[in-house]
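Blackboard transcription, Thursday session:
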Amino acid sequence: MIPLATAHLKGPHIDFAGLSPLIALLGGSVLVLIVGLLGSRWIRAQAVPSLSLGALGAALGLTIWQWNAQKSIVSGALRIDDLALVLNLVLIAGAACTVLLAWRSLAAREAAHGEFHALLLSSVAGMSLLAAAQNTVALFVGLELLSIPLYVLCATELKREHSLESGLKYLIVGSVGSATLLYGLAMIYGATGTTDFAGIASALSNGSLATDPLTLTGVALCVAGLCFKSSIAPFHQWTPDVYEGAPTPVTAFMAVTTKVAAFGVFLRFFDVALIDTQVSWGPALAVLATITILVGNVGALGQSSLKRMLAYSSVAQAGYMLAGVVVSTQLGVRATVFYLAAYLFMNMAAFAVIVARERQTDLGDSIGALAGLGRERPLLAWPMTISMLALAGIPATAGFMGKFYLIDAAVSGGYTWLGVAIVVGSMISLGYYLPVIAAMWMREAPAATSPNDASVLAPTPGPLPALAGGSSELDEDGGPLSGSQPEVLVVAVLAGAATIFFGVIPQPLFDLVHGAGSGLGLF
Amino acid sequence: MLRSYLPAIVFLVLGGAVGGAFAVLNSVIGPRRATPHKQDPYECGLPSEVKRGMRFGISFYLIAMLFILFDIEVVFLYPIAVELRAYGSYALTETIVFIVLLFVAFGYVWRRGALEWR
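(Written on the board underneath:)
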């Protein structure tokens, strides 16, 4: 303590330009929280989402402003490079879609708008931090900043039991995952004596530390912890329940952005810090990837709830993406990042359609809600069709390019059998993606639930003060079942169009991810 | 490498053994003569009014949680206040940011009515 009293404590030099996207997100989160307290209900319901879109826009602009930066900031805790910036773009796009999907949602309304969007923005900030972390402490802080708001977001439909159950389950499983990861990080710190990724790498590269039991136990625990977060089998069991129970916009957010953040960590931590133990974790992760592909694809077969089906599908997709991590080559990094971007478009299109149908019918997220959609609302049916085909990996979609890239990476990285597993998994996946398309285009809409008939036969739920008297959900802006929702349609159409666009002309996306691969110092 | 952890492991084993021994020996050797008074939650004083399954007002939890939050914040402020001259302007700016965030949280909690007793 005595030397501290005499010398001035010098803080780390902080490069505020590099931190600016993060500051925009966190500042936006605080601002949104305050604005959520002011004004009338209607102003809140419109101003708060607009402000959070503004914050995301600012973060997007600042990310682009930082383009081509290659620097370590905050005493080397964070790395601003192409990988971090590209992942930032994907994260911000995913969050913006979520804000649009949640604009009229019950979840945002019940969580008083301000809270919902503040939690959303701080979660995105955590993900952005995670994508840039190159220090185990920053990694863990980012992970918790990501997770804790997400636990709450899952439970924001306060009056629905399943939403609360989903939040509780995610809290418990997520905490186990965090604790496991933290234990692993502590062991790696114990073995190498440093928290810095580059320091860990250099400690592991000389001497026998790379095969030390302490190091390997730490690596194994880290794998388990991160697998919990990115729902990789056999740590995926929470996924279907949590995805099904959470409010659909939150499910969309979770499905896309947590994957981005978790794979950002996978890439940076395993392919930079732990690269010298690759002989140990490489085969293990490859086996996990294969199990994940099989479990996810087989589990999704025969699911009647679309959210549950997409949950299992996201498990399978995580398995595909893990292949890019396993090979730990530049090509692998690029393929993973490419797939993450494609995955954003494919999933957002699907979830936007589910959100729209949940509000138009009373069938919730069951596959029956889509029956006859092709004739009735082609603008919703097409994005869903494109999304299903892309998730299955049909050519001329971004999903095909992504899988192609991943298989290429797996084969040239010496894991041909993993490439075969991806192909087999995609073939199984047609068994649950195609029924969705068939329901939309080949089945008739059930008469009672078609919105046109509903307006004639059944009383519209909105303007019925006699029935909806005390219920605050129904008397505000028309209730959950009615009203047009242009912003959901915009998300669906844009995401669907992007899926096709990057499937036909993938070059812009290839260029974008090119730098992400070369920044990590891999072959 | 693992050698340096030996004292910690010895400590854990010894601590577990001694603690476990006391807990087990007590229930094995100790006499057990139950009287109604001994079964009470409190052996002395008035007969207990507390029933099992009694429900606690949720406001207690909310207030307690908020108290801990703000309490911990003050605990952080105290050492900085004592050593501020030594820490210099960096610590001061950090602390100001910290307090501003604290006040935002306070204002939020206040306006949302978490401090009202319900």
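Lecturer's comment: The first strand of chain A starts at residue 71 and ends at 73.
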